[in-house]
Here is the input.
Amino acid sequence: VDASVPTDLWHWLAALSSIVLLLILLVGLRWKSTEAGPAGMFLAMLIALGPFRTPVTTLAVAAGKGVWDAVFILYVIWPALLLYAVADRAGAFHALRAGIEKFSRNELFLVLAFGWVFASFLQGITGFGVPIAVVAPLLLALGVRPLHAVAIPLIGHSWANMFGTIAVSWLATNQVIDIADPGATAWQTALLLGIPNFTGGVAIAWLYGRGPAVRHAVPLVVVVSMIHGGGQLALVFWNPIVSNFIAGTAALIALYPLSFWRLYDEAHREMERPAMRDGAAGDDEADRAAAAARERERREPVMSLGMALFPYVVLTVVTLGGLLTPPIERALGVYRAGLPFPEVSTGYGVTTPAEAAYAPFAVFAHPGTFILVATIIAWIVYRRLGYYEAWRRVASPEGIWKGVTDGALPASVAVIAFLIMAAIFDHSGQTRTLALGIAAVTPPLGYAFAANIIGVLGAFMTSSNTASNVLFSGLQQDVARLQGLPEAAIIAGQSAGGALGNSIAPANVVLGTGTTGISGREGAVLRLTLPWALLVAVMIGIVTIVLTTV
Amino acid sequence: VTPSRFLGLSLVLFLVGLPVVSLGTVHVGPVLGWVGLLAIVGGAALPAIARFAGWGADESDDDGSR
Here is the structure.
C-alpha cells in the first residue's frame, strides 16, 4: 500500500471537501455545471497546493492531462449533438415519435426499450457517454420530460460499463493488476452487475409511473434482466470480452417478440406518468424548452419511421463493422496521438511517471468518428431526399450549427473542469488519501461493503469505469491482501461500483443535459439518479460481503 | 446568464493551455507550463466571471434554471 500520502482525518476531510462542494453546488444550490465544475476544480487546486504540498508544475501537468482526458468525451458530445441536429432538422424525431406510436401503443414498453435495452446495447459497443448523448434525445422524441430523458439512460446503461465497450474496463483492470483468479473475479463482477441491471429496469419503470408502472413492467424487467444480467453472467465463463455485447444484442433482438406479449402490445391502463410531458402537471421549468416541440408534434411527419431510424441503424452498422472486424479494427487503431508530459511529484513523494505520449488517442477507432460517419451519411441521404426542405416548410427549425453549439459549449466547459479536477485529485494524492482513509478505519467486512463505494467515487470523479479501476484496483488488491479478504470479491465490488458511478458522474449528466437542451439542470437530474445509485451501492456492498464468505 | 461567446472563449483557452503546458513542462521550461496552467485556469474562471459580472447579459441563452 502506498504509504507516501497522508491518511489522517484532517487530510481526508480536506480531500473530500471539493467533492462535497461540487455536490452541494450542483444538487443543493442548483448551480450550473459550468460554474459548479470550475468551483470544485479551484478548491481541489487549493487543497492540492496547501495540505497536499503539490508544486505548481505538478498542477499544470495535471490540468493539461485533465483537458486531454476531456477531449475523448468532447469527441462524443460534438458529433452526438451534430447527429441529433442533422436528424431533428430533417424532421426525423417528429417522425420517430409519430411512427413509434403506430408501432406500439405501450409507452412504458417503449421507454424501457429505448432507455434501458437500447442504451445498454450502445454501451456494449461504444461507451464514452454515447448511450446518454444518443438515447436522451430519442426519449425526448417519445414525449419523455427532459430531466427524465437524461436520468433514464444514465440509470439504464450503467450496469453495462464494466464489460461494455468490448470489455475495455475489464482489459484495463487486467493490465494494471495481476489478478490471481481472473475467472472468479469475472463471474463475481458479473453477478454484482446483475443488481444495477435488474434494479435499473425497475427504477426506470418507477420514474415513469411509480408503483403501478413497476407492477406493469416487472414481467418485462425480469425477462430482459435474465437476458442482460443472466446472459452476461453465463457468458463471462466463456469469454468476458464479448459477454456484454452478446447479452445486450440478444436483449435488443428479444424486444421484437416481447412487443407481441399480450401485456405489452396494447396501451397500459391509465396511471399517473410523471416522466411524460403529457402525464403530469408541468411544474418544471425545463418543460418550457419542450413546448415548441410539442406544438410541432401535431403536424404530419415528413418521413417514415424506418427513415427516421436510419442514422441509428447506420451508427450501429458502422460501429459493429469497425470494432468487430479485426482487420478493420487494427487498421483504425494504427493512428494514435498523445502529448508528452514529464515526471512530476508532490511534497509527500506522490510521483506520477513521465509519458512520451499520454493516453494516446486513436481518432479513427473512437466512437466519435463512428457517430460522425453516421451523421455525414444521414445528412447526405436526408438532403438528397429533400427532407430538410420539407420539414423547413412545416416547422421552420433553427439552424444545425446553432443547435450544436448551444448544447456542446456548456457541456464541453463543464466536462473539462470535471476531468481537470479528477486529474488534480490523482496527481496530488487526494484520491489515494480518500481510499486509504476508508481502508484504514474499516474492519475487513466493513471494507468489503465499502469496496464498491470506492469504485463509485472513482467513476463519479472521472465518469469512467476504466479510469476508476485503473486508479483503485491496485489499492483494492493491496487492502484485500492486508485484511485477508478474497481478492476476487473486492475487485468485483470495485468494478461494480465503477460501473454504477457512471449513473451519477457529472460529466455523464452533462452529456444528456447538453443533448436535450437543458444545460444547467444537472443537479435536478442528479436528484433523480442519486437515490437509486445509493440504494444499489448498499445492495452491492451487502452481496460483496456475502461473496467474501464463499 | 453565461453568454455563449464566453463559453466559446473558455473552450479556446482550455485547448490552447493544453499544448502550452505539455511544451513548457517537457521542453521549454516550467514558466511556460505555468502560462499554460494560467490559460486553463482562465478558461475555467471565465464562465463564472462573465455570469456574475453580468457581461453580455443582453445575449439570452439562459434556460431559466436558476
